[in-house]
Amino acid sequence: MIVITGASGQLGRLVIKSLLAKVPASQIAATVRNPERVSDLAALGVQIRKADYSNPASLETAFQGAEKVLLISSSEVGQRLAQHKNVIDAAKKAGVALLAYTSLLHVDTSPLFLAGEHKETEAYLRLSGVPFVLLRNGWYTENYLASIQPALQHGAFIGSAGEGRIASAARADYAEAAAVVLTSAGQTGKVYELAGEESYTLAEFAAELSRQSGKQIPYVNLPEAEFKAALVGAGLPEPLAGVLAGSDVGASKGGLFDDKRQLSALIGRATTPLSSLIQAALK
Fold first, then answer.
1. pLDDT digits (tens, 9 = 90+) for 185-214
2. By C-alpha distance, which of 65, 61, 17, 63 is closest to 38?
3. 0.85 exceeded by the pTM?
4. CB neighbours of 67 closer than 8 A, spacing ≥ 6?
5. C-beta of residue 75 within 8 angstroms of C-beta of residue 46
6. Domains defined for the chain, CATH in brackets
7. Is residue 163 within 8 Å of residue 252, measured between CB atoms?
C-alpha cells in the first residue's frame, strides 16, 4: 500500500496518475481533508482516507497498513514544520517501511526563505528513525507560466531574479519521479536533487514568450519590494507575494539552478522543454 498525502493538490493528483500506470489502484491510498474533492480518484479505485496534517489522530488512522508514504510538503508556510512532524510521527507509529518527502533543491545551501522549514523537516526525519528518501524538488515551471497572461496584458514580464539561471521542470516531471521512487527498490537513504534539464534566465523566458506570442514582451527586473507590491496589486495574498518575490531574489543568487540532471535520469527521459510548456500555456 502506497499512501499519498495532500492528494487533492496539483502535485498529489499527478503523482497518483503516474502511479496508476505502474501499480493497481487498490494499492494506492489518497489522504485528503475533503474527500468530496477527489471523487474522481475514488471512481478509479483509489482508496480515499480523510486526514489533516494538523490532526495527528487522523494521520495515524490514514496510515494503517501503509508500506510507503509520500509526504507532499504542506502549502501552509509558517506551519509546515509542525504539520510535517505530525506526518512523520504517524508514519513511525504505523511502521512505514519508507517515507518519501518533497523537500527543496539544495536545501542545505539554498538562499530561499522557503528552505528553513524544509531543512528542519529533513533534520527531524533523520532523527525519527523512519526509513526515508528525499525528493529535493526544484522550481515548478508552472510558477512562471502563471504570469504569462498578466505579462501579455501589460506588455512586460516582471520579476526579481536578475541574471539567475532557473532549472525548473513541469510539475508532472516531478510527479513522475516520485512515482518511480515509490515503486522502486533500494531507495532508503537516497537524496535526489531534482531540477529541469535546461535552464533559463527570466529574460530568456520573456524572449521565448515573445517569439511564440508574436508580441514584444521584455523582462523587467524589479527590486524585491516593488515586485512584491506588484503581485499584491495583482490580487495575490501578501504572504504568497512575499514568498514569490523572495524566491526570485534567491534565484538571482543561484538558488534555483542545478545541472546534474538527476530528474531526467530518474524518469528515463528529458524533462518537458520550456518551449512546449509556454506553447501549452498560450493555448
1. 999 999 999 999 999 999 999 999 999 999
2. 17
3. yes
4. 1, 2, 96, 97, 98
5. no
6. 2-137 (3.40.50.720), 139-170+195-258+272-283 (3.90.25.10)
7. yes
